[in-house]
Amino acid sequence: MKKIINPAGLRRPFSNSSHGVYVPPGAGLLVISGQVGIGPDDVIPRSVKAQAELCFETIGKILAEAGMGFEDIIRVNGYVTMREDIPAYLEVRDRYVGDPMPVSTQLIVSGFTRAEFLVEVEVTAAKAA
């Protein structure tokens, strides 16, 4: 359904991602708010990797509720508070999102609503209706 766009002659994206994703008319679109690393028990792990796992577990449940899966993701935005946490975040992202990779942006931000949060992930997904 989605078409990955990586034109010849362009530098590869910095991380495992695509330059563009085309979604044809008539596809259902799901936009998921930024998810932070907190469990249903309100526990916030101390590592960015564990928090990223919780972010993607939550995203998986939201996707499933909409009749979608990780393969339907067309965009991932990841936000971390420290540059050195990007590799750990990307390791988790790549494990959940898979191949072909959607478009993706990683940003370093000064913080989130609670100081304990180290990562936030938002996604957009699309699936043929």
Automatic annotation (TrEMBL):
<dbReference type="Pfam" id="PF01042">
    <property type="entry name" value="Ribonuc_L-PSP"/>
</dbReference>
<protein>
    <submittedName>
        <fullName>Endoribonuclease L-PSP</fullName>
    </submittedName>
</protein>
<dbReference type="InterPro" id="IPR035959">
    <property type="entry name" value="RutC-like_sf"/>
</dbReference>
<dbReference type="InterPro" id="IPR006175">
    <property type="entry name" value="YjgF/YER057c/UK114"/>
</dbReference>
